[in-house]
Amino acid sequence: MTDHGDDVDRSDEWDRLRARHLHEHRPPSSARGVHHLALLSSDVEQTIAFYQ
Fold this sequence. Notes:
The protein has two helices and no strands.
């Protein structure tokens, strides 16, 4: 089971996810009027895969 909560340092995990999934140059959003919307599941990498 994955640890969670405010007392868990997840910065290393987040850095790995950023390095793996964020791209320096991204195309303009096709969402028109929506500036930002993110829905998260309990598995962050699964959420990223869904939105990409």
